[in-house]
Amino acid sequence: MGDITELESGLGDAAASLIAALTSIWVPIQLALILGAAAVAALTAALVRRRIDLVALTMGWPPPLRLVVRNVIANLGMIIFAAAVALMRATMLALTAPERSALLGIATSLAVAWVLIHLVAGLIRNRFVFRVVALSTWTIAALSILGLLTPLSEALDSVAIEIGGMRLTPLLVIKTLVLLLLALWAALAVSNFLDRRVRRASDLTPSHQVLIGKFVRFSLICLAVLLVVRSTGIDLSALAIFSGAVGVGIGFGLQKIVSNFFSGIILLADKSIKPGDVITVGDSFGWVSSMNARFIAVVTRDGREILIPNEDVVTHQVVNWSYTKDEIRIDLPFEVDVAENPHVVRRIAAEAAASVPRVLAKPPPVCHFVAFNARSLDFLLRFWINDPADGVTNIRGAVLLALWDALKREKIDFPSPVQDVRLRAPAAAQEGAYLARGGRKSG
Q1: Tens digit of pLDDT for each residue in 99-145?
Q2: For residue 104, what is the enclosing H or E element?
Q3: C-beta of residue 91 within 8 angstroms of C-beta of residue 104
Q4: CA-to-CA dists, residue 393 to 281, 352, 368, 399, angstroms
Q5: Which parts of 305-365 fold into alpha helices (H)?
Q6: pLDDT of 443 over the 50 cut
Q7: What pLDDT was estimated at residue 367?
């Protein structure tokens, strides 16, 4: 509590000094100079951005240099403001006492810290992480410039609670969260870089590439968490009770997540499914676009992405149209009129299927005469394709259209839905109809 009292005393003294300083004529003068410098910097930066085509200027430059120039242009207003205020500060130091330009000195330090932090943090591509890092770093720098960092740190460290022998303070929580965020961002950035390098390795299968990438990402994240925990001095043995509770929670509440995670590892290890395969799971047909820790993404022919849990892929029947090879056979049954010549029909059907571009010439299409009955002759047309990712329904339709055109061209009829009905003993039929209308049978 003594630290809090000291902080309150320090803030009170600072407030009293500020009130005393505000009564001086030099404070409004400095504020006016700062506002004027801010207006000039904003107008100059806007004019420069309007006159400079950044894309055309940096065309052909290395990507890191383009990123630096983009950050400089984005912070051009603050750079001009810092330079203008620093020039005013130097001029007033040469003409008046130092305490009469103290506010300009603070503004200069804050502006320079803002520029340096944003130029360095601007190299972070993730905008959320960039904002968090820039804001937190500048806040710490501002507190240090104002002389409040040490009292505030001591005050945050003075309030603590004991958990299993571990002293938990607000300062420790803030430090842990900031370091954890930075460590996780660094781990993800490194894992993404290594994942891109692994995916360029042509001697690795797609399943091995995904498996190595997931393993590297998981290992780096675990390493980042352990480093943060060790650097902040957190004793994990003091959290044994809570870790046991977390284990129970995983056992009951996260069963599906853990099952999907290990099912995904199994799928990647046994290479039964890999990115680019064409699969059918239940009513879902499409090609595998990505394999993740919890699910696989299947893109259907209509552009939808279906997320199938890894556990369902492992435990249910899956049709992999391109497991060992891309060639698949398609069966197409059809019927013709019973009066047609089956030899001619078989030849015409095979030629019609062979005329479709996607149908393979080897093995050639074949047509089998499978059955006949009182009204039709039944045939089965079989052909092969090697691009199931381009669709199966559309090739069926193309072959059916070619078959229809060929049969019509050869004047081969399909079974007629009309059936002949022959009536015997017309007189008896007429008498039955008369009785059905309520008539009386003649004696």
Answers
A1: 777 788 888 888 888 888 887 777 777 777 777 777 878 888 888 87
A2: helix 102-121
A3: no
A4: 16, 17, 21, 10
A5: 310-315, 342-354
A6: no
A7: 94
The predicted structure's pLDDT at residue 133: 75
Peptide bond into 363 cis (omega under 30): yes
Show Cβ contacts of residue 219 under 8 Å, excluding neighbours closer than 6 positions: none
**Kindly report the CA angle at 59 between 57 and 61, in degrees rounded to 5?**
100
Which two three-digit tokens encode residue 159?
């309030």
Q: Which two tokens stand for residue 325?
A: 């090879």
User: What is the pTM for the complete model shown?
Assistant: 0.47
Q: Of 88-92, 244-248, 356-360, which range is least confident?
A: 244-248
Which domains, and CATH codes, for the chain? 2-159 (no CATH), 168-253 (1.10.287), 269-320 (2.30.30.60), 328-409 (3.30.70.100)
| Cα–Cα nearest to 279, from 258, 255, 306, 239 | 306
Strand partners, 305: 299
pLDDT at residue 429, as a whole number: 54
Distance (Å) of CA 291 to CA 271, 274, 380:
12, 8, 38
